[in-house]
Design a protein that fits this description.
The protein is about 45% helix and about 15% strand. By secondary structure, the protein is an alpha/beta fold. It folds into 3 domains: about 80 residues, Orthogonal Bundle (Arc Repressor Mutant, subunit A), CATH 1.10.10; about 80 residues, Periplasmic binding protein-like II (D-Maltodextrin-Binding Protein, domain 2, 3-Layer(aba) Sandwich); about 90 residues, Periplasmic binding protein-like II (D-Maltodextrin-Binding Protein, domain 2), CATH 3.40.190. The strands form 4 sheets. Strands 4-3-5-12 form a 4-stranded mixed beta sheet. α5 links the parallel β3 and β4. α1 packs across α3, α1 crosses α4 and α2 crosses α3. The longest helix is centred in the N-terminal third of the chain and has 29 residues. It is rod-shaped and about 105 Å long. The chain starts with a helix and ends with a helix. About 25% of the residues are buried.
Length: about 280
């Protein structure tokens, strides 16, 4: 028994006419009759009562019709889902991100991606740079936003329009723990030393949100990327560091051997969103 025979049987049962069922499948009446006989032989039951004037389903045939429709529908759905999975239209996508870094574009990206691909189930995982890189390496994440860490043109808390890094020598610093972002931590220390002082670190946290909270609570200052200005409040000011022109790039990464078909769809949507967010677009 195969699905072709089931489709032939369903057609005969719906038409109650072998000729019309054969025409529906573009085969001869003899061919479809032979398939029904073969099916009845395999099942060991009679599916139709046939006379010269009519074709009627037997009680067994009625039961088999109900089950055949279910089997064919499930097979069709399985084929559709399999094809969608191969194309990335159905599947799972695990996305890693740092946190505030992605705020300018992430809400729009997620909203548009969900709208375009409603059958892709995605999960978001916030973590530090090293943890993200490790998760990518071990395939715990499919794609992630991270930093190839270079210190950005940044700003700290003060009431001046601009300030030089050397002017921060007497200030208490609040920073991200080194184990979370060693590249950023070391770059900050080195640049301060170049400016003639070692920063007085009074508080550390694994989370950027906590660092911002501590700064707003007057615990200290910090050197952060410009995009953190999105979190500015009356008590949390971001001021440009004068003479600083280093940059920090936020990159999106995935393992070269990860064959998850949803990844190209996500990257394409990311490209679209970033183009939409560019000025004069």
């Amino acid at each position: 028994m195969d699905f072709r025979q089931l489709r032939y049987f369903i057609s005969v049962a719906e038409h109650l006419n072998f000729t019309q069922a054969a025409q529906h499948h573009y085969i001869t009446q003899t061919a479809i009759s032979q398939q029904i006989i073969a099916l009845e032989t395999q099942l060991g039951v009679k599916l139709f009562n046939r006379t010269n004037r009519s074709v009627q389903l037997t009680p067994a045939g009625k039961t088999f019709l109900r089950e055949s429709r279910i089997m064919v529908a499930r097979a069709d759905e399985a084929i559709k889902l399999t094809r969608h999975a191969a194309s990335g239209l159905v599947g799972n996508l695990k996305i890693g991100f740092l946190g505030p870094n992605e705020k300018p574009f992430m809400p729009t990206l997620i909203r548009q991606f969900r709208r375009k691909y409603p059958n892709i189930v995605f999960s978001l995982h916030q973590s530090g740079i090293d943890d993200i890189h490790e998760a990518l390496e071990h395939r715990f994440l499919d794609v992630a936003f991270t930093l190839p860490f270079h210190l950005d043109k940044i700003a700290g808390l003060t009431w001046e329009a601009k300030i030089k890094r050397a002017d921060l020598s007497g200030e208490p610093f609040v920073v991200i723990e080194r184990e979370v972002a060693p590249g950023a931590f070391d770059a900050m220390i080195q640049d301060c030393v170049k400016s003639g002082f070692t920063p007085n670190i009074v508080a550390q946290s694994r989370f950027l949100e906590t660092v911002l909270l501590l700064i707003e609570s007057d615990v200290g200052i910090s050197i952060l990327p410009r995009f953190f200005e999105l979190y500015a409040t009356p008590n949390l000011r971001f001021i440009e560091l004068e003479g600083e022109n280093e940059t920090m790039k936020l990159v999106v990464a995935h393992h070269v051997d990860n064959d998850n078909p949803t990844i190209p769809l996500f990257l394409e949507e990311l490209k679209t969103v970033l183009e939409q967010l560019q000025p004069n677009k």
